[in-house]
Amino acid sequence: MVARKGTDVERLSTRQEDEVIEVALLLPSTRLEALMDLSKNRGQSVGQILRSLIERELTVTNVAC
To answer: What is the pLDDT of residue 18?
Structure first.
């Protein structure tokens, strides 16, 4: 995907802290199956797992949120 002037990239910088955006994700089917199995085993949604992984990585790399 290529960002064009005046599209989503510019709007992201003006978002409120509590706003939520949707992110598309392409995964190999084997990874999706593994993620769905993990979701079932943990009793968490796929979204919860992905948000946790992202938050953990951002914390580890000290990226301000």
So the answer is: 75
